[in-house]
Design goal:
By secondary structure, the chain is mainly alpha-helical. The chain is built from 33 helices and 6 strands. A 4-stranded mixed beta sheet has the order 1-5-4-6. A two-stranded antiparallel sheet has the order 2-3. The longest helix is centred in the last third of the chain and has 37 residues. It holds the Pfam family Acyl_transf_3. Keywords: Membrane, Signal, Transmembrane, Transmembrane helix. InterPro entries: Acyl_transf_3_dom, Nose-resist-to-fluoxetine_N, O2_lipid_transport_reg.
């Protein structure tokens, strides 16, 4: 279903409702363009003087806003014009910091140099002032609250074309982003304004804030409102102890993989393989898998069992860490399908992650867009519901996990009797399988992301993680209980899924054990109870908090009222219904067997109902985006209560029909061999994709600007880089611990 709908999204969004002008393309003669640039630059000082003294430079939009405004927009205009940030201009430095003042510090001295040079129209000083963010820029009524100026112009010297050198300046400058406290007005500036400043590096944050307070005569600003490109050099004397410890651990893993690769190459060239012995598989795990998938060959490149000679066991063991071997494991494709495999799950798993990344590429960038109103306008597009309904992609993962847990638990119980050892391994294996990679990626995000780039939006001081996470919130991740605390203290914004997944795994035996002990009715009843608990929890919370926002574009807002994300979205009692449907589907498949056949009428009716149900779940809230005042509260509550149940029923039917090989063309598409390598990277890609998104956002020199094709281009780039980064994570993070688990926790 998603495989069909995503291309529709790409097609429709490329013809978005936002009008985009078309232009005729004229072939450029680059030599003439360069020559014109040379002529322009030779006269650049005169041009700057003309611009500064031009009467047009004195025409500011607030003059028009104050005199030509309608009553409808008067409040917005007043909020903008009277905002203290609208009064911060670089020329105020010239008026307020004159040479008569006492030069009591390096900052004061450098400001005097800048002031003097600017008054003499020296090019380097004009460049510094030009880099400032200009108050009241264009696009404010579209939601532009990022008055960033030019980050690169502030930090980099100006290139002189005539002598092919860089313009020297007597002082070094730093870029600072001044963030206002969000106002009380419920308008465009209610989220606060970010203003770019270009000032000498000798000025620390406190001295800059003092200067601004003098200019504005306000005391509400403090140094926490200011972030400068020079903060790291001024306030961090070398990497922290946590950063050093992480680098040591990562260095050890890199060394281990390097030694393993050398050992693997040594075995390849020194020991002749046994051609008569077939490769074996050890079951590579994926995001939604609890145990091995026998159709996936993992150790099929140079397995130790193929060697005729007996190499040293230590070398054979080290070779398991080989990067070459791991790459072979990832990209190996076994085209032989047996009755125990569910190859079609690879397609569902990968397409679901594509959908997750699509939604996150959109939602994670909302706070950094300069035309948020255009984006809200685009949400009226019918196909846009594929983005806002992306929450169902995670429900699909929950369902897959429940299905595989049920099927594999029953298989293990049939091979060996239910025992204490089996139950201990059930819990230990899951924890050991997921945790090391998760924790390493989390600590990379905490300690290394401050060094992952630069830009006016880049959080220089803390990286991509919140203060709550860095100050100790990370310990909840080790216990998988982070979703019981405020989301603002959670490390890695996507890990709430892992917490729920593990918690569902803890309680699943309440249904699994009765089922394998021939009390199947109790197993079915427990899964139904899980669903009822989820429905009752969501309904109770929405009724208890009548002001809780349920709109897809607002559910993560902490601004007013109870937080939907903290109360409902991330809590296990509200999210367990898809997992329960997965258990139920697994029970049905192992009970009926994979040779079970449905008659044509039942199959066709089931396919139609499942498709309609899935489409209703995705598109039924469309009216909330186009109607005024939107859907009723009762309708939205009903949607939140029932939509995940409906989606789970739709995907459960898809899994069941494909499991008995009656899925037709859908089964064949989902079973394409191209999904297999990507499915092996899914877990790592899920963990790392949010970091890839933030690297993309925070390294921008300008705020994000929503256009349909630009968004799609960014999405495809993020998707590709997420899977490329996942290869690195699998080689250096996942494989070493997988090898150790296989060595010491043999199942």
């Amino acid at each position: 279903m998603v495989a069909v709908l995503l291309p529709v999204l790409l097609l429709v969004l490329s013809h978005s409702t936002i009008g985009e002008p078309t232009f005729e393309t004229i072939p450029l003669r680059f030599e003439s363009v360069i020559q014109r640039l040379r002529e322009f630059y030779q006269n650049y000082p005169d041009i700057v003087n003309d611009l500064v003294n031009n009467p047009f430079a004195k025409i500011r939009p607030e003059l028009l806003l104050n005199n030509r405004t309608s009553s409808q927009n008067q409040n917005i205009v007043n909020d903008l014009v009277n905002n203290p940030f609208a009064k911060i201009r670089p020329e105020l430095l010239l008026n307020n910091r004159t040479s008569s003042q006492n030069q009591s510090s390096d900052c004061e001295r450098d400001l005097e140099i800048l002031i003097s040079a600017a008054s003499q129209r020296q090019l380097w000083a004009l460049k510094v002032l030009d880099a400032w963010g200009k108050p009241l820029p264009s696009g404010i009524l579209k939601g532009n609250i990022f008055w960033l100026g030019n980050y690169d112009e502030c930090l980099n010297p100006l290139y002189q074309i005539n002598n092919k050198s860089f313009l020297q300046q007597p002082i070094n400058t730093q870029y600072c982003a001044l963030q206002s406290v969000p106002g009380s007005a419920q308008g465009i500036t209610s989220s606060g304004i970010t203003l770019g400043l270009c000032l000498p590096t000798s000025c620390n944050r406190q001295s800059i804030i003092t200067l601004i307070q003098e200019i504005l005569n306000v005391s509400s600003l403090n140094k926490n409102n200011l972030h400068c490109s020079n903060d790291r050099a001024n306030e961090q004397h070398g990497p922290s102890s946590g950063t050093i410890a992480l680098i040591i651990v990562l260095s050890f893993l890199v060394l281990l993989v390097f030694i393993g690769t050398i050992a693997d190459i040594f075995l390849q060239v020194s020991v002749k393989p046994n051609e008569d012995e077939k490769s074996h598989s050890n079951g590579y795990h994926n995001l939604s898998e609890e145990s091995s998938n026998k159709n996936v060959p993992v150790n099929s490149v140079y397995p130790a069992s193929q060697y005729m000679a007996k190499p040293m066991p230590s070398i054979v063991f080290l070779a398991e860490f080989s990067a070459v071997r791991t790459l072979g494991h990832i990209f190996a494709i076994d085209k032989k399908e047996n009755e125990n495999s569910f190859v079609f799950l690879n397609g569902i798993r990968v397409l679901s992650l594509f959908w997750v990344i699509l939604g996150h590429s959109f939602f994670f960038g909302l706070s950094y867009m300069s035309n948020i109103l255009d984006l809200l306008s685009a949400s009226r597009n019918f196909a846009f519901q594929l983005i806002t309904s992306g929450v169902f992609s995670v429900d699909t993962f929950f369902l897959l996990t429940g299905f595989l847990t049920a099927v594999l638990f029953v298989r293990h119980a049939r091979k060996e009797k239910l025992s204490l050892r089996m139950m201990i391994l059930y819990y230990v294996h899951r924890y050991v399988r997921l945790t090391p990679t998760f924790i390493l990626v989390m600590f990379v995000s905490i300690y290394l992301t401050p060094y992952f780039g630069q830009g006016p939006l880049f959080p220089v001081q803390q990286g991509f993680e919140s203060t709550g996470c860095r100050n100790g919130g990370w310990w909840t991740s080790f216990l998988y209980i982070g979703n019981f605390f405020k989301s603002e203290n959670m490390c890695l914004s996507v890990t709430w899924y892992l917490f729920n997944d593990m918690q569902f795994h803890w309680i699943a035996p309440l249904a699994l054990i009765p089922f394998v002990m021939k009390q199947r009715a109790i197993g079915y009843i427990m899964t139904i109870l899980f669903v009822l608990v989820s429905i009752g929890s969501i309904l109770s919370l929405l009724l208890f908090y009548p002001s809780m926002v349920t709109h897809a574009l607002d559910i993560s807002s902490n601004a007013t009222g109870p937080n939907f994300f903290d109360k409902i979205y991330q809590t296990p009692w509200c999210r367990i219904s898809p997992y329960a449907f997965g258990l139920l589907t697994g029970f049905v498949v192992v009970s009926t067997g994979r040779n079970y056949r449905l008659n044509t009428i039942v199959r066709v009716i089931g396919n139609i109902l499942a498709t309609v149900l899935g489409l209703v779940c995705i598109f039924s809230t469309y009216g909330d985006y186009i109607l005024v005042p939107g859907l009723s509260r009762a309708s939205l509550v009903a949607y939140q209560v029932l939509s995940r149940v409906g989606w789970s029923m739709s995907i459960s039917w898809l899994i069941f029909i494909c499991s008995i090989n009656q899925g037709g063309i859908v089964n064949r598409i989902l079973s394409f061999s191209i999904w297999t390598p990507l499915a092996r990277l899914n877990y790592a890609a899920y963990l790392i994709h949010s970091t890839v998104i933030f690297v993309t956002i925070f390294n921008q020199s300008v705020p994000l600007y929503y256009q349909s094709m630009t968004f799609l281009n960014n999405y495809v780039s993020i998707l590709c880089f997420s899977y490329l980064a996942a290869i690195v994570v699998v080689i250096f993070f996942e494989t070493p611990f997988f090898v150790l688990e296989k060595k010491f926790l043999k199942r």
